[in-house]
Write a structure and sequence with these properties.
There is one protein chain. About 15% of the residues lie in helices and about 30% in strands. With about 675 residues, the chain is α+β, with helices and mostly antiparallel strands. The chain folds into four domains: about 150 residues, NPCBM/NEW2 domain (Jelly Rolls, Sandwich); about 80 residues, Sandwich (Immunoglobulin-like), CATH 2.60.40.10; about 280 residues, Aldolase class I (TIM Barrel, Alpha-Beta Barrel); about 100 residues, Golgi alpha-mannosidase II (Immunoglobulin-like, Sandwich). The protein is globular and about 100 Å long. The N and C termini lie far apart (about 95 Å). The structure holds alpha-D-galactopyranose.
């Protein structure tokens, strides 16, 4: 009898264990492996951190995400049922969002929602998942753009037949960062732009970018009258009065040797002869930027060694001005002084002193405003004070102005071309009146095909898109859409597909590592370099990790961006999810990016997932497609390594969402 009760007890325990342990809520899982097209997935909250609500129905449990979103779960055949309520979160504006949910089991679609919009009622999901090994949860943008696509998986629950430890369920498809670029050697080597434009009589500042063991001494032959070089720092300053082209030979010397390189200084009307390279505060700090963070960024530009690769600008974005009606005391004050000169807020106690510090390091400093009365973040902007502002910037020693449309939408009568151009021309005229070279960066998100007239209104660069975020859909959507803009770029006037989202980003004060995978980051930097895009690092400069530094310090990649011809890459192949972009270089070689972005709209739901396999695509580069017949030499630019000599074509595997960046030259 005793023995019998014991068996009953064991059976009961097993039964209780099974019936208790087998339900897992989606929000209990590690969401860091869930891909999310904007923001970060949230447990028991919407993607913007609000309660989960679909068409007025509130849910306690669930996951808020954003299209395109994927989540791959390893159920090992132990699944029973998957249940949930899905829909667009109420936090978005009606009619803007359109999304589609899928439940995919071992590459087969088990359930799909059809297109869902706000205010559709939540749809119930109830799917038999018995035997499924890998379960994929997918939200697509339903074939249009991802804007406003806030998607909720509410009360999402997986019933299992057997226990699986929570930690084993989530398939981590994220690849660890891998470094391709060798460290610079101890030998001196001069890097960065080898052509530099300056206007006659304006202050000149150029720092010789050189890698190699310190101490290093610098010298220059044929330096034009009016310039002097600090031999210990490599900083050249002064003023050149006479227009013309000056060929200077720079040298950098250390105990290991002496490097020499020619620098062409062009004194005339054009500046920004190569795309600007530097840092901008927005993608990391947004409105939490202050004087200390800008100083720290300038310090880090030097201590990280980035300055030795040609990185130059330290640009303050929005939020340095007084904010009318601000609640925060540090943002309050008189907008302008009695002469109409703009004031800074208390986070920037002395802009001139800050500019001096930045210049003393051989770097340049940028600032932000807009043609409307207010900036995008609601701070004082330049409307009707353009001349005073240009004057103020020159007095402070500002070298770069990002000029952001935003509240000018209330001033403009309509969106006709004359109305779009007008405010940019007004500030151009103001900047031209001050004795300082200020890079003029138009920011109006591409309205009226700004690339067609940005140069005409005197822009040195113009944003071609809305704001970038650190997600694959944002970065790839922007980058791979630049095809066709190439004819509008050239020395002094560049298309700007927005700033870099590598390293620690987050629109501050809280930061997170970029959501782009390592391969996506290689794609980002390769594509932006091929596109002759301004390269503005959006990261916390004081905490750059080795991987991010490797992305930003490969001189052969930078050379592609800074090539003096300034010919923007064009797309020469776009099939089967693969793309090839080619850029003509001054030395007669071709820079070629082989990409595998897999962007096709009509993708099968199963193809959004890796299914635990490492995907890559065989890609063929034909010599004739890049204008080379016969034999050609191929160099892997990220690895800085010659691959070999090929005839007619070159074939390689390109990682999923990744790139193989090449330099190809005809073999004679
Ligand atoms: C706009 C711009 C961004 C940034 C913010 C600042 O959104 O596109 O790059 O400058 O304004 O408020």
């Amino acid at each position: 009898m005793k023995y019998f009760s014991f068996i009953i007890l064991i059976v009961a325990v097993i039964f209780v264990q099974q019936s208790v342990a087998q339900s897992i809520y989606l929000d209990e899982l590690d969401l860091s492996a869930m891909e999310c097209g904007w923001g970060t997935p949230e447990a028991n909250k919407s993607v913007e951190g609000n309660p989960l609500i679909i068409a007025g129905q509130k849910f306690e449990h669930g996951v808020g995400t954003h299209a395109v979103s994927t989540f791959l779960l390893n159920l090992d055949g132990k699944g029973k049922r998957f249940t949930a309520f899905v829909g667009v979160d109420d936090e978005v504006v009606p009619e803007k969002a359109s999304i589609q949910f899928y439940v995919v089991g071992d590459k087969k679609v088990l359930w799909e929602s059809g297109v869902m919009k706000k205010p559709d009622a939540a749809k119930k999901v109830d799917v038999d998942i018995s035997g499924v090994k890998l379960l994929g949860l997918l939200v697509t943008d339903a074939g249009d753009w991802i804007d406003y696509d806030h998607a909720d998986w509410c009360d999402a629950k997986i019933e299992l037949t057997e226990n699986i430890p929570l930690a084993d369920i989530v398939v981590k498809t994220k690849v660890e960062p891998y470094i391709l670029t060798p460290k610079p050697s101890d030998l001196p080597k001069i890097n960065g732009a080898n052509v530099f434009g300056v206007r006659p009589g304006n202050p000149f500042l150029y720092t010789i970018a050189a890698t190699g063991k310190r101490p290093m001494t610098f010298s220059a032959e044929n330096l034009p009258d009016g310039l002097s070089l600090d031999g210990a720092t490599g900083i050249i300053t002064g003023k050149i009065i006479k227009e013309g082209e000056y060929k200077v030979t720079l040298s950098a010397k250390n105990v290991f040797g002496n490097a020499r390189r020619e620098l062409r200084i062009k004194v005339g009307s054009q500046i920004s002869l190569t795309p600007p390279m530097g840092w901008n505060s927005w993608n990391c700090w947004a409105c939490s930027v202050d004087d200390a963070k800008v100083r720290a960024s300038a310090d880090a530009m030097v201590s990280s060694g980035l300055i030795n690769h040609g990185w130059t600008y330290i640009n303050i974005d929005d939020c340095w001005e007084i904010k009318p009606d601000a609640k925060e005391p540090e943002l309050q004050g008189e907008l302008r002084d009695k002469n109409g000169m703009i004031n800074t807020n208390k986070k920037f106690p002395d802009m001139k002193a800050l500019a001096d510090i930045v210049h003393s390091k051989g770097l340049k400093i940028g600032i932000y405003s807009g043609p409307g009365p207010l900036t995008c973040a609601g701070f004082t902007a330049s409307y009707q004070y353009e001349l005073q502002d240009a004057q103020r910037y020159a007095d402070w020693g500002i070298d770069y102005l990002k000029y952001d449309w935003c509240s000018y939408s209330k001033i403009a009568k309509d969106r006709s071309l004359p109305e779009l151009k007008k405010p940019y021309q007004v500030m151009r005229d103001a900047l031209s009146k001050v004795p300082r070279d200020i890079v003029y960066s138009l920011c109006q998100y591409g309205m009226g095909n700004v690339w067609e007239w940005g140069e005409e209104v005197g822009g040195n660069c113009w944003r071609t898109t809305g704001d970038i975020t650190d997600t694959w859909s944002s970065m790839s959507g922007i980058g791979f859409n630049q095809s066709g803009h190439e004819k509008f770029a050239g020395p002094g006037h560049w298309n700007d597909p927005d700033m870099l989202v590598v390293g620690l980003v987050g629109w501050g004060p809280q930061l997170h590592p970029s959501n782009l995978t390592p391969d996506e980051q290689y794609t980002h930097i390769s594509l932006w370099s091929l596109l002759c895009s301004p390269l503005l690092i959006g990261a916390d400069m004081s905490r750059l990790d080795d991987f991010t530094l490797n992305l930003l310090t490969n001189d052969e990649v930078i050379e592609i961006n800074q090539d003096p011809l300034g010919i923007q890459a064009r797309r020469i192949f776009n099939e089967d999810g693969k793309q090839i972009w080619m850029k003509e270089m001054e030395d007669g070689s071709k820079a070629v990016g082989l990409f595998y972005p897999d962007l096709s709209d009509k993708k099968e739901p199963a193809s959004y997932f890796s299914w635990g396999e490492k995907k890559s695509a065989k890609t063929i580069l034909k010599g004739t497609d890049i204008g080379i017949s016969g034999k050609f030499k191929v160099r892997d630019v990220w690895r800085q390594k010659d691959i070999g000599v090929f005839e007619n074509q070159f074939e390689t595997e390109v990682p999923y969402h990744g790139v193989v960046l090449l330099k190809v030259v005809k073999k004679h």
